[in-house]
Design a protein that fits this description.
The structure is a homotetramer of 216-residue chains. Helices cover 80% and strands 0% of the residues of chain A. By secondary structure, the first copy, chain A, is mostly helical. Chain B binds a DNA duplex (21 and 21 nucleotides) through helix 4.
DNA sequence: TATGAATGAGGCTTCATTCAT
DNA sequence: AATGAATGAAGCCTCATTCAT
């Protein structure tokens, strides 16, 4: 009512990007929790500082919002990975560190994992449509390719290593560990997800990957 | 319309179990394709030889149908695994065969994989409620435990092997290979999923698992 | 399975009237509790020793069952009233006793009251169709008419008393006391329905009715 | 179709309260006529100037609509009673007027009576949940309490009169007269509901209540 | 006399989305 | 840049009832 209040309200309302960030943060949570069909635009709007109408204003429709939420998820994760400094490490140590890091990183970003799961349920259609995300991942694989090249050059890794296949191996363990935790816990107990078990699994995984790289 | 048709219709009517099997087969496909929220009861009914009403007659509600569909999926897969004859093989060979088999089996049962993905999205709630499935999986892990025991006794496997952790390793690779194929293909190309690449990945996986078992 | 069991089962199954009584008893409860639309044929069947199919076999449809249930309710209540012996009492005492009895009787037969409430909601259509019930009530009013006649003849009641109007007065208090107990309790407290309050209300009602009969 | 019509439609659109009033008016009629289970949301929507969707938009679900309809019914009736000016009348005259008024008022508001009947069938659950209605009725009983107090103070009413019990007596006659008209008519003829009979019943009731107040 | 299996019709409710300002 | 009101289409589910033996 007062001019003061209006000013305050305007302060962030007049900042379209802040509004969009607000919506996206909520959207990621909602989509990660309920999937694409299970997510509710109403629920997203309710947890937002804006109204449902704004979602359509900025993102067009539910799928548009989902696509942007997916992009934001990938972006955030890849930014986290950027902190890794592997160039100055010898190849084996670099690979070791990369695997361990990925394992932990996935564990710490369950919402991202869930977004990817959901995207796989939907045959990666939104992903295919997003050039942004593809670019992000090309960069990610470059890092691994560099390690492989150095390792081969130094003779510590076997020749003809496929960085993509290596990434597949690293991802498989790290991803499955988070994605399938609910069913795995129910079927075989939650013990595998205790801190000590997780530490051992991570170590096992690191050693398995290194064995593959050095293989033969 | 014709008397013939009526006869035919009758022939499978009045056979409740056949009707339920019919519905379940369609339901698995629909749920695997669209998820729990995305699945449409109408669509399931349409692909069935019965009516929507019968779905509710036999399964109560959508969640009831989903739960049964999940159970059926697990059952079918575990039955497939039962054909494996591992007892007469030496431990290492048995493990090798189990890993390779699991890898292939998951590839050949994408609908099962998708059902499990969906169930993970839903925090394994339906799974937790189904004693049937838990029993099935207890049996599955027994097989692996037996291999471990024999391997340890013969001194070919390291002591203290955790069958559940081993199952985790086997599942991670085999499951991820199917579950994340869509996103992985979009981001890093479909080459990893070619027959030759898959053969190599399977071999790599087998060797990695064996390395873990023999480790140290 | 055994012949013995079959015999036992047959023992009451072969008694159609017992089956119908079983169904009707359950039906009265269900209709009284949920009303005509609210009652569920499935629920009635479930609480019965027979199947849903039998309900249709014996009563045609839901409305047929409801009508019979209503008839049975009236019958039971009127039979209860038959135990009253008023002929040998002087008119005032007879009327006093009739009022007090009705008051108590209604309190003790809430299901009957609810059936009548429900029938009123439905504009007494089923009642209008049932000659059985009309006959029952003609008999009931005769009793009151007799008391009035004797009272007038003896000069203790005023002339021109209308037995139907008197019945209206008696019913109003006795019926309302049961029918509106839920709303009345919520709005004005349940104290009016305590034993002591009820005793006083009954006495007040008796006196009020007698005042009307002796009036002027 | 015509511009005129669109204008008209617009004129009352965008007026949420008008829309809600429209819906509620229709809802009261439908619920009063068919009860809670018997009422059809479709039928309500059809008699409305809005669509079925708006019912859910404003009232959540059928029970929510029913609850509001019940509240509106009570409100309307209590507002009608507010026109009564009893303070300036001597106690006996005030009570006489209150009884006569209630008797007529109930007769003129059969929909309200039916709503209360229906609510009683449902054990007053909606009523119990509505603070609004409870407040309304507290006010209603205050009026009666005031009359009692004045009457006792002036020595025209007996001491220890319970206003709630008195309200029970007044309501019993006035309510039953409307609620049980259908069954009573079928069983004992419609003559009791003729204008002359009703006038006499009202008078009888007034006198009976006054007799109770002055009693002893 | 009895019954397990089946069902058409219609019930309530929810969804993403657009209108009109 | 922003919004409260409104909605068509479709979702899930339940009901009394009948079929076929």
């Amino acid at each position: 009512m007062t001019t003061k209040n209006q000013e305050e309200k305007r302060s962030w309302k007049q900042d379209p990007e802040a509004v969009q960030r607000d919506i996206l943060a909520v959207a990621v949570t909602e989509f990660a929790e309920h999937g694409l069909s299970g997510a509710r635009v109403d629920r997203i709007a309710a947890r937002t500082r804006t109204s449902k109408r704004m979602i359509y204003y900025y993102f067009g429709d539910k799928l548009g919002l989902y696509t942007r939420a997916l992009e934001v998820s990938y972006q955030k994760v890849r930014e986290g990975e950027a902190s890794l400094e592997l160039d100055h490490l010898p190849p084996a140590a670099a690979l070791e560190r990369l695997v361990a890091f990925t394992f932990d990183h996935h564990r710490n970003n369950p919402d991202f994992i869930r977004m990817v799961m959901i995207e796989n349920i939907h045959q990666a259609e939104a992903l295919a449509a997003s050039k942004t995300i593809r670019d992000l991942n090309v960069a990610a694989i470059e890092k691994l390719k560099d390690i492989c090249n150095r390792g081969e050059a130094e003779g510590v890794f076997r020749a003809g290593l496929d960085p993509v296949a290596l990434h597949w191996q690293i991802s498989a363990a790290s991803f499955f560990n988070v994605s399938n935790r609910p069913t795995f816990s129910v079927l075989f107990g939650a013990e595998v997800f205790s801190e000590t078990s997780q530490a051992r699994l991570r170590e096992q995984t690191v050693e398995a990957i290194l064995a593959i790289a050095k293989q033969k």
